[in-house]
Amino acid sequence: MRKLLVLALVGLAAQLVDGALGMAYGLTSSTLLLFAGVAPAAASASVHLAEIGTTLAAGVSHWRFGNVDWRVVGRIALPGAVGSFAGATFLSSISTESAAPWMAAILFTLGAYLLVRFSRPLRAARAAGRLRSRFLAPLGLFAGFVDATGGGGWGPVATPALLVSGRMEPRKVIGSVDTSEFLVAGAASIGFLIGLGSDGFLLPTVAALLIGGLIAAPIAAWLVRIVPAQLLGAVIGGVIVLTNTRTLLRAGELGGPVPALAYSVLGAGWLVALVLAVRALRRTRRARAVAEAALATPTAAGAAAPDPVAGAAAPGAGPATVTEVAPTPEEPRRLAAAVEG
Question: Would you say 243 and 28 are in contact if contact means Cβ atoms under 8 Å apart?
Answer without folding.
Answer: no
